[in-house]
Amino acid sequence: MTQNPPAFSGGPKPDAHRAATHRRRLIKTAEQRLAQLTALRADGYLAGGLTGLEKESLRVGPDGTISRRPHPPGLGSPLTHPHITTDFSEALIELITPPLADLRSTLDFLHELHVFVFEHLEAEEMLWAASMPCRVQGDESVPIARYGSSNVGMMKHVYRVGLSHRYGRIMQAIAGVHFNYSLPPALWAPLKDIERDPSPPARFVSERYFALIRNFQRMGWILPWLFGTSPALCRSFLGSGPDRFERFDAGTRYAPYGTSLRMSDIGYKNKSQAGLAISYDGLDRYVESLARAIETPSPEFEAIGVAVGGEYRQLNCNVLQIENEYYSFVRPKQVARSGEKPSAALRRRGVEYVEVRALDVSPFDPLGINEPQLRFLEALLILCLLTDSPPIDASEAQKIDGNQELVARRGREPELVLQRRERAQRLRDWAEEIAGALEGICECLDRGLESRPYGRALDLQREAIRHPEGLPSARLLDELRTRREGFFDFAMRKSHEFALDWRAARLAPRRHKDLSARSEASRLDQARTEAADRVGFAEYLRAYFAEELDTAAQAGAS
């Protein structure tokens, strides 16, 4: 067995007095703003933020291998359907809820999408119940998603072809759950008064969202620690490379104290993007640093070529093809209009919401997520908003990345120590501090709710902090040991269980009619999109990157 390195080496050791001082400071700044909101009778504005979910699942056959069948036609067009699409692979279904003010309604919508999907899957197909993929047989076993013959559809496909050349297809088969969140509009005016910020309202909102994002980067490690469910994986995922994990059985590798290998450097925190230095110190710097990466040629990717032998291998040979190629823990988002680059949408209209990308698909929950997790996450995002958020320099950025990697691979080590700006702190002490700072926020969110959903969610996580042997990642490994089954057999069993339940479920007639009509409308929308193209794909790409696409489209349509 491989030996784990020490939890922390070098640098200052944790100091109890300093840790307590910083704990009080974190709680104090958030509590001060909360008290000021209360004095303005605006603390009630913390509730009612819009929430949305994007849940990815691999479509697999009865033997647990990735399906080679095309996206089920009864689910509509993945190009134009607002709620049912595909991610990297033709077999990687993505279910998207609209933004809703009630979290329970968001989960109900996701439930309905699952029922509808299972009505249209082949009888022997099911959705894989875990983040880490099923057995894979090299890159060719992961089919790349297709979106039809339109320019926009071809761009989505070629982008994915580029990802396969740059990073390989297997990494792209990892699934996750993304949480979209926007704060209540009524909150911004009183918060602006408290901050005495003279900037225009839209600018203030964007900068406060970036403050939230910086703090989420600092504290967001707590999500994979509390909710991670990928401490083990199929040996096939690692290919022919050397084993970097301990052997559980012939087909399973694992990290004994791991929480979310999906979020480690074998997944979305891959080393190939480590040097990008995307700045979160404000809207302008973020857009500028992304633009620099999209416009800077990469010698490594130039060797791949763009259009070779009449076929596109990637959209361009730059460090990033487009903004979405940057794999980040959390993203600022603005809804992009047709033909508009995401960074241009941000620059023109500011931040509308944040997308949190740190959640594994839970094999213990049919939806892949549960309500207490999301209640806790919403409260955490509000804490990130209310806590002081200085800029992140290069040194702190390195520590943040190191913390995320440590938690992903070794988070349940009993005395694990993380780096917190200029000092070191024991993970569990920091987690207790965060939980303490959430108390007042959860009380505000629970006001008028007899069931105390936020307070109960916080109580559950405080219990997990005190008894980390009950964390989902620990439960998963315990179940493998108790049942003497490898990761593949465990995930296969859970996938079968969930599939039986989903197939037995029924939609209300009205909802079934609505979703069926939406699927049919999406097919018509794709046909209209394809018929409307008036320029070739090369011209379309040139206009898109030059931000001339609307002009080009209008010229072509005239």
Question: How would you characterize this protein structure?
Answer:
Helix content is 46%, strand content 11%. By secondary structure, the protein is α+β, with helices and mostly antiparallel strands. The strands form 4 sheets. Strands 1, 2, 3, 4, 5, 11 and 12 form a 7-stranded antiparallel β-sheet that branches. A 3-stranded antiparallel β-sheet has the order 6-8-7, with no helix packed on it. Residues 1-20 and 551-558 have low confidence and may be disordered.
List the helices and strands and how they pair.
Layout lengths: L15 H24 L10 E11 L23 E3 L5 E5 L6 H18 L5 E2 L23 H17 L1 H4 L4 E6 L5 H8 L5 H19 L2 H6 L4 E3 L11 E4 L2 E3 L28 H13 L3 H4 L4 E2 L2 E2 L17 E4 L8 H8 L3 E7 L11 H16 L7 H17 L6 E4 L2 E4 H11 L1 H8 L6 H14 L5 H12 L3 H18 L4 H24 L4 H9 L3 H9 L1
Antiparallel strand pairs: 1-3, 1-4, 1-5, 2-3, 5-12, 6-8, 7-8, 9-10, 11-12, 13-14
Helix pairs in contact: 1-11, 1-13, 6-11, 8-10, 11-15, 13-15, 14-15, 19-20
Q: Let me know the largest β-sheet.
A: 7 strands, antiparallel
How many β-strand runs? 14
Question: What oligomeric arrangement do these chains adopt?
Answer: single chain
**Could you tell me the mean pLDDT?**
92
Low-confidence parts:
1-20, 551-558
The number of helical segments is 20
The 3D shape can be described as globular
Q: Please indicate the percent range of residues in DSSP E strands (runs of 2 or more).
A: 5-15%
* Secondary-structure content class: alpha+beta
**Alpha-carbon Rg, integer:** 23 Å
Distance from N terminus to C terminus (CA atoms, Å) equals: 68 Å
Q: Roughly how much helix do the residues carry, as a percent range?
A: 40-55%
